[in-house]
Each structure stands twice: as C-alpha cells, then as structure tokens.
Amino acid sequence: MAMSASQTLRTSFLRNPTSSSSLSLSSKNPLAFSLPSRLRRLAAPRLVVVLSAARLDAKPTVLVAEKLGEAGLDLLKEFANVDCSYNLSPEELCTKISLCDALIVRSGTKVSREVFESSGGRLKVVGRAGVGIDNVDLGAATEFGCLVVNAPTANTVAAAEHGIALLTAMARNVAQADASVKAGKWLRNKYVGVSLVGKTLAVMGFGKVGSEVARRAKGLGMHVIAHDPYAPADRARAIGVELVSFDEALATADFITLHMPLTAATNKVLNDETFAKMKKGVRIVNVARGGVIDEDALVRALDSGIVAQAALDVFTVEPPPQGNKLVLHERVTATPHLGASTMEAQEGVAIEIAEAVVGALKGELAATAVNAPMVPAEVLAELKPYVELAEKLGRLAVQLVAGGSGVKNVKVSYASARAPDDLDTRLLRAMITKGLIEPISSVFVNLVNADFTAKQRGLRITEERTILDGSPENPLDSIQVQIANVESKFASAISDSGEIKVEGRVKDGVPHLTRVGSFEVDVSLEGSIILCRQVDQPGMIGLVGSILGEENVNVSFMSVGRIAPRKQAVMAIGVDDTPSKQSLKRIGDVPAIEEFVFLKL
C-alpha cells in the first residue's frame, strides 16, 4: 500500500552544515555531497571533494585582478595573502593563477577555461564583484571544482537612485537643456517638461531594485503599478503598489521603468509589437540590461511619437558604436552604465564579495554561489534523467501561470519504491526551483543556493513522497509539480483541486510529460511544446500537423488525452523549432480548438 509523508522545504543545510541530512562540511571536504546509504555500500572510493579548504600550513592567496574598495581588501588581508595585480593580459593571468587559491574580478577580466586549466586545480573560488557573470566560464568552473560567487545586493540602492535620477531628468529635459545653455543658447520654451505627480509608473520587474524605485516614486506622488510573476502581492500592497499583467502595465503607464534580468524570455521584450500596445507619449527608463529593448524598434517608436522620451543607462553593446542613432536621438538621455557607480555602492560590493570569498575558502556554503558544486559520479549518473525532468517540469509549470499571478506555494510529489534514506531529493528540489525561477530571473539556481533563493523570493516549496510497492531499481516512478493559488494562461492545466498541475516520468532515459491538469498525455520533453484544448473529433491531429508542416516545423511527438470520446481533449505536441506567430495564430483560429499555449523548454 502507498504511503505519503509531507516534508516542508527547509534551509537547514545552509544553517547547520553538520546535520546528517545535509552537505557534509569539514576542513578536508568542505563541499562534500553525501551518498544515499544504498549507494554508499556500492561506491568505493567515493568522489566527494569539490572545494578544498586552503592549505592548512599557510594562508591562502587571493588574486585581485581589478580595483576593489579598501574595506574589501582589508577583510581579505585578515585571512589571506592578497595580490593586487590589475590590467593583466590573458597570458599573464594564466601564468599567475597557478599560485592562487581565489580570484576576484569585475566585468573587465575574462575568466576562461584556459584560466581554470592553468590553475592546476589550485583555484578554489572566483569572486565577481557585481551581479553579472558573463565573463566567467561557469561550465569550466564547475568542471574544475571551482565555486563562483557574486555580489548581487550591494548595488540595489545605487541602481534605484540612478533610475529615479534618469526619470526626473528625462521628464524635465535636464540633459538637453544643460547642453543647450553650455552652447550659448537660452531656449526656455523648447524644454518645457512634464510633471510626475499623478502619473502612472509601471515598474517592470519588482525585485530588489524595482521595489526601491517604486518606494521613491510613491514619494514623488506617482501612481505605481508593477509586473513581476514572482512578486508577492502582500509585499507590493505594503508599499502601495498594484501588481498587474504585462499587457495592462504597457497599456496604462505614462512612464515605464525596466528592472528585469536579461534572459531568453526578456530578450528584446520591448519591441515593435509591445511598443504598439503602449499609450502614445509614454516615457521609458532602463537601468537594467540593454538587451531587454530592441534598440532599432525604440528608435522607430521615438520617431513615430509612440515613445516621447527615453532615458537609458545600459545598451545592447557597451560602449555603443560611434554614430549610434539611439544615443544621438534628440529625445534620449544616455549615461554610461552608471547604475552602481556611487562611492557607497562600490565599497558595499567590495565588502560583500570579500566576505563571500573568505567564507568559501573557509569551507562555508555561499548563498551567492552561481554554479553548482560537483556531486558524486554515482549519484549524477543515476539521477541525470530525473534532474532534467525536474527542471523541465518547473519551467513548464511557471510558464502556465498567468501574468500578474504571484507564485508562492509549490508542492512537489515524488513517487518511488525506495526508502526515504535511499533517495536524496535535494538535487531534484534544487532543479525544480531552478526551473521555476531562472526563466524570469537573473539568479543562477543550484544545489548550493536553491533553498535560500526560494525563501528570498517568498516561494514556499513542500515535498511529499509516495512510497510504492515494487523494485527499487529505479530511483523514481514520477515527479509531480503543483502551483497553488494562481491563475493559468491554459485553463486545462488546472486540476480538479484548483492547482496548476504537471507530472512527468522518465522513459528509456528520456523525460516525458505525462499529465497536465486532469488530462493524461505522453510527450517527450525535448524542444518545445504546444498544448491545445480541443473538441475531440476526427482530423484534429492532421490539421494542426499540416499547419506546422507548412512552415517546416518538425513535430517530434504528439499525444492526445481526453475525458471521453467526442468530448474535450488536450493535445500535446512536441516541436523541434519555434513556430512563427502567424502559425500559432492559425492554430488558435481552428474552430474546434478552445485554447492553446506554446511553452519553451
């Protein structure tokens, strides 16, 4: 008989690294990953060492390759030998790195695979003094057992203040008027501005920086709305902000300020199509990432009058090329990526990254780690397809949430014939968290920071295990992810009990989606998926397949789950390519199709 036991998500392994159910930390093996008892009996020797503590007979050496605030350097010097060598060539860095236990960089130093190879295994930590880690080869870092940490919080106030500075300067034409006066002109009538009081500001991305901008804008007398699928509604209400859908934010805002990460989902999210949905005369501020705006489309929107003004601190290519039309546009205020450029923020970043690097060298788990620690080969080999399944179920589930709904409560159910002590679900839970958060966040989620990241975003994950009869040869029979108290953009994904529900299994080593809401399906989780709710009638599979085939979109898998013959059914279609908007519209226009959604994996 099957038995269930609920287990609430905890961060005990971050707080109490010596507990038996946590990562094993010691001076010899500070990031060891314990094997389940069944595998412990089989595995000899164990592969456990990921991040060794510095040599016990000497201080570790930290190479600081770019300028760091004195407060951070002082912290480092208390624990380690510090080598400040700036403006190193790639060859010089590779030569020095074999003598170093840690490396601290900003954005100007490329930490490539060659750097890790040249370290000879001695490099244990790379610290990025800032948020973005595009200049660090994360794959190589993990492969060589090197932890990568960043400093994501110290810039928050500085970035928010710069956003407000651009907002007010844009509204009152400060930069243009200043240039005019310095050119010997006095054009008071030309530079008449607009008031902020009573205007609607849409904050796109209600994280740390976005919420601080909202607080300040409220103080300026603005009506503030926000869009962020992860923002808790109670936190927004506490500062007088209304959470709305993406389209509603675009349609109602007088000013739009961007605070979203650059991900596949947000790349050029402001484009010709979204500009067309905005109120004529809207004003836009961007202190987030340049790539979230299609810059050519913004020029067209400025020329047509859809966008009255823009104030930009970030650009797709930095510095922008000479003659850049957007930078030179008369109604654009531009600054050279100054969001974090205050004396206080620079010192804060220095302290934050120094503390993270020192903690990692001591063998402590870093909440700001951005790459996954190595785990035993035996565990990875066995769980590999289930790890992939877990992440993809998380990605599917969060994409089914309608805009404006805050994701707070997630339940994960594992069905397995194994005893609880022979199935460590931390890695699976981390990958589900990764799938839920990464598509709309700049945070890199892994085993080290998954619980911390979820808690930080108000995301409560509970786990439930159903113990099955039968052979424990396979670690899992199925994984189910449910998101409670949200609306869905695909109503059929809502189960009878009212939650978004997706379930999957591994078949022949390949993750499969086996349930959506109350409908059973069977589709390989490769490429992307189209879900259609339809009237069950002959010819539907062929009709949809023909629409996709006309555009040369290859269908990899197709499955139909139905309530009863000639009643409602859900068709799940796996596709190797991304269909055009026209093809998706044609599918939606089929009379028998009641709703559909396209989901990227």
Ordered list of secondary-structure elements with their pairings:
Layout: E1 3-8, H1 12-15, H2 37-42, E2 61-64, H3 70-79, E3 81-84, H4 90-96, E4 102-105, H5 113-118, E5 125-128, H6 138-143, E6 147-150, H7 156-171, H8 174-182, E7 200-204, H9 208-219, E8 223-227, H10 233-238, E9 242-243, H11 246-252, E10 255-258, H12 272-276, E11 282-286, H13 295-304, E12 307-312, H14 325-328, E13 332-334, H15 343-361, H16 377-399, E14 409-416, H17 426-437, H18 450-456, E15 460-467, E16 478-484, E17 500-507, E18 510-516, E19 519-524, E20 528-535, H19 540-550, E21 555-562, E22 568-575, H20 581-589, E23 593-600
Parallel strand pairs: 2-3, 2-4, 4-5, 5-6, 7-8, 7-10, 8-9, 10-11, 11-12, 12-13, 14-15
Antiparallel strand pairs: 1-15, 14-16, 16-17, 17-18, 18-19, 20-22, 20-23, 21-22
What does it look like?
The chain has 601 residues and is α/β, with parallel strands linked by helices. The chain has 20 helices and 23 strands. A 7-stranded mixed sheet has the order 1-15-14-16-17-18-19, with helices on one face. A 7-stranded parallel sheet has the order 9-8-7-10-11-12-13, sandwiched between helices. β7, α9 and β8 form a beta-alpha-beta unit. The two termini are 35 Å apart. The N terminus is likely disordered.
